[in-house]
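Can't paste images in this forum, so I'm doing it all in text. The chain is below; anyone willing to post the predicted structure tokens underneath?
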Amino acid sequence: MLRLHKWKLLCLALAANIALIGSLVSGDLKPYDQWNWLDIIGEGGLAFLALVWLLLILHSRPTGRVTQLLSLGLGAIFIAGFQDWLDEFIHFPDNALWDHWLESGFMPVGLILLTWGIYQWHKEQLLLAEQLRKRERLFREHRGLDFTTTLSGASYLRTQLGQSLAEQRATETSLALLFIDVDNFSHTNRHYGHQQGDHLLQCLSELMLLNIRRNDLLCRYAGDRFALVLPNTGRSMAEKIATEIANAVQHFAYKPFNHDESLFHSVSIGIALTNNDQPVADTACSLIERATIALLHQKEKRAKEQSITLPYVA
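Text version of the structure:
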């Protein structure tokens, strides 16, 4: 991990060398009997610990704003402590004001940057803790994760779809359910084995996750069929997302293990939309049934035309 921050370490080493050379040029070495070992150990220990903390942070964190703030703060504290430590060995003339500015200026600036970085780190840890709590709660609720794609399964889809429909009726908003089926998936299983087929499904699930919004829910419904719940989504947006997913899959080149060729796939997508004007409200089962019918119509249409068409909407 340190190699990601090599420029930070090089700049710090350069700054320390400039301070050392500048101190040797500007001042005179003190005789041995004027050395104060308590100050040497205390001030040198401060600079050394700041450097150790900096190395530990750079070794354990990727690049980013929090890492930048922490490294700048600790770097400034190290330079201030290092210059203060040099004062114990070198006597500076009264007109060498840069020495005092380096000690007195870098230390408060470093502490401010370090404090701000720790605050941002605290916020980052709170977000991570929230994600861990959500994951723990989801496991306690027995989400039934699919181990191939790490997506939720059909039972969780029905539960969440029922809750989303209740919220949609209360807020009088629209909701869309997409059924996404990988075309000719059995060909991959037959010619390359089920392990390759599982890996393909995993890759396609990650690809689809990159093409949906934060509040959308993607599940593996069964086999090579995925379900996508789109809250607060009308017909035009649902068709737009479906087309984007279809195009992303179509241009994805899957390379099987130990094979040189690339495999290209397509998907058929059926869309079911809620209708607030109908006398009987949609349920999870009725919406899934309409999405299944829409998907079957789309697959039949693709089989006849053998070309990309807009998704069928039920």
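The CA atoms of residues 230 and 237 lie 9 Å apart. The domain at 154-313 is CATH 3.30.70.270 (Alpha-Beta Plaits).
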